[in-house]
Design goal:
A hairpin with a 2-residue loop joins strand 18 and strand 19. The protein is an alpha+beta fold. It contains 13 helices and 19 strands. Strands 9, 12, 15, 16, 17, 18 and 19 form a 7-stranded mixed β-sheet that branches. Helix 9 packs across helix 10 and helix 9 crosses helix 12.
């Protein structure tokens, strides 16, 4: 019996997605729950799993294909019949064909001796004139994926000198010499990426400069393209203004120092600064509800709940998971959520629900060393709080100059509905609560 493998139902705001890399190939045995392929949407990466035991009979959409919600992308044969035959037939077909022909159609298997490469991987290898044997595979079965190639390209250092071979190399067809060179060093696979360096300047086309100054063209991921569209839209459609202030972090740091060990022992999570700022932001939003509002057409939508987005830098780009009903959560609950979101973002396991909604966002550029910045609003929200690096600075206190750990805060807001007075007072309210944390307990 054939069972359809479909694209998961996407969110209303997501019209289509991109297939990334198939983890199984036609003829492979699969079990219920086995990961078949990852699908990248504008917001998250989704995993499509096998719905039943059987054999992957056919793949209808290859790597890199654009797909829509509920579209059939593959089929599983639950009886396990007929699926393995194509794989068996392929071997004698390849053996009967001339060697030269097999090099043209399937260069990678002949060269590397591993499982066959997907069309997306082959296209990247040909575009950048790369040897599959030089790129470490991230999968346990040794199969090279598109992500492995992109990661290799991102981390590959530029060639310092053009090798003597590059000049004659373009004359023969670029795809012909590669297979001949691949099988030579079996140990080359474990060598560093410098083994491929002499070939890089020889790549024809705009990817190689004439003076030994190579360039690489890597397509944006769907997530990054969508983020770019949203950020540009935010700048074009909102009247963004930013106000700044500084906050003395000494009281919070002192409180954290006194109770961090006991806090971690009690709740199993470390006490950080983000829970203090989340609590302070929620209390400030209660006093200035327009900061928690959004614009819809010619209407202002005031939200009676506090869903706080936390900007997180993930391997695939910036994502903003949402802590829902933050006003109902304790410090430990907030810290646990932050740790959970950070791990899920790193592993690419954030769900659509994790990223949907949000009435106000907090971003912490200080973890990367940023001293000051002007964060961009995350539509359809109307404001975003930017935290920065804590730096000791001299300041006047009770008529004396003392050294205190200071952090600059930035609030970017939509001036269409938020006046400067409200924005400044909102930021001052956060400053006062951070500098006197007892206010957070008394909610004043």
């Amino acid at each position: 019996m054939l069972i359809d493998v479909k694209v998961p139902v996407l969110a209303e705001s997501v019209s289509e997605a991109t297939l990334m890399t198939w983890h199984k190939q036609p003829g492979d045995a699969v079990k219920r729950g086995d990961s078949l392929i990852d699908i990248e949407t504008d917001k998250v990466t989704l995993e499509v799993s096998a719905v039943d035991n059987g054999v992957l009979a056919e793949i209808l959409k290859e790597d890199g294909a654009e797909v829509q919600s509920d579209e059939v992308i593959a089929r599983i044969d639950t009886e396990g019949k007929g699926a393995a035959k194509p794989a068996e037939k392929a071997k004698p077909a390849e053996q009967n064909e001339p060697k030269q022909q097999s090099l043209v159609d399937e260069p990678e298997p002949a060269a590397s001796g591993t499982t066959r490469l997907s069309p997306a991987v082959r296209a990247l290898l040909e575009e950048h004139n790369l040897d599959a044997a030089d790129i470490p595979a991230g999968r346990d079965d040794g199969r090279l994926t598109k992500e492995d190639v992109l990661k290799y390209l991102e981390g590959k250092p530029a060639a310092s000198q053009p090798a003597p071979e590059p000049t004659p190399a373009p004359k023969p067809a670029a795809e012909k010499p590669e297979p001949a060179q691949q099988p030579a060093p079996a140990a080359e696979k474990s060598a560093t990426t410098t083994t491929a360096r002499p070939e890089t300047p020889a790549a024809p086309g705009p990817s190689a400069g004439s003076g030994g100054r190579p360039e690489e063209r890597v397509p944006m991921t769907r997530l990054r393209k969508r983020a770019a569209e949203r950020l540009l839209s935010a700048q074009h459609e909102n009247a963004i203004l930013t106000t700044f202030n500084e906050v003395n972090m000494h009281p919070v740091m002192d409180l954290r120092k006194r109770y961090k060990d006991q806090f971690e022992k009690e709740y199993g999570v470390k006490l950080g600064f983000m829970s203090f700022f989340t609590k302070a932001a929620v209390e400030a939003l209660k006093h200035f509800p327009v900061i928690n509002a959004s614009v819809e057409g010619e209407d202002i939508i005031y939200h009676g709940y506090f869903d706080i987005g936390m900007a997180v830098s993930a391997p695939r780009g910036l994502v903003v998971p949402v802590i829902r009903d933050a006003d109902m959560l304790s410090f430990a609950d907030i810290e646990s959520k932050i740790v959970e979101f950070g791990q899920k973002a790193h592993d690419g396991k954030l769900t659509m629900d994790d990223l949907t909604g949000g009435t106000f966002t907090i971003t912490n550029g200080g973890v990367f060393g940023s001293m000051l910045s002007t964060p961009i609003i995350n539509p359809p929200q109307s404001a975003i709080l930017g935290m920065h690096k804590i730096q000791e600075r001299p300041m006047a206190e009770n008529g004396q100059v003392v050294v205190r750990p200071i952090m600059y805060l930035a609030l970017s807001y939509d001036h269409r509905i938020i006046d400067g007075r409200e924005a400044v007072q909102f930021l001052v309210a956060i400053k006062e609560m951070i500098e006197d944390p007892s206010r957070l307990l008394l909610q004043v």
